[in-house]
Design goal:
Layout (H helix, E strand, L loop, with lengths): L5 E3 L6 E2 L8 E3 L4 E5 L12 E3 L4 E4 L12 E3 L4 E2 L6 H4 L8 E3 L4
Parallel strand pairs: 1-3, 2-4, 3-5, 4-6, 5-7, 6-8, 7-9
């Protein structure tokens, strides 16, 4: 799947965790994905779009500042938390970032 551009698995009633191969545009919105957002997500340097809203993700969001191509980040309506939301500071390195949606956490 090295040429994968878009992986859209939204609204499928999927459960489990986030897969390692993501493509450039990755959506698993409106499923039953559980657990933490893996820190290894920051290694997917080609990611432009991450949409994981309306799942059952918990914990803190890892630093995503290395994703220089990221322009959309949608993580709303999960169970994410942070005492200082430090990952937001890391997003200042994402110079193409246009949308961050975190409502409902």
């Amino acid at each position: 799947m090295s040429a994968l551009q878009i992986l859209n698995l939204a609204q499928n009633n999927l459960s489990g965790s986030i897969p390692p191969s993501l493509g450039k545009r990755f959506s698993m919105s409106n499923n039953k994905i559980e657990g933490f957002i893996p820190a290894s997500l920051a290694n997917a340097s080609k990611l432009q779009w991450i949409s994981l809203n309306n799942n059952k993700l918990v914990g803190t969001v890892p630093s995503l500042g290395s994703l220089s191509n990221l322009y959309i980040l949608v993580l709303g309506n999960n169970y994410l938390e942070s005492k200082d939301w430090a990952f937001l500071k890391s997003l200042s390195n994402c110079t193409r970032l246009q949308i961050v949606a975190m409502g409902g956490n």
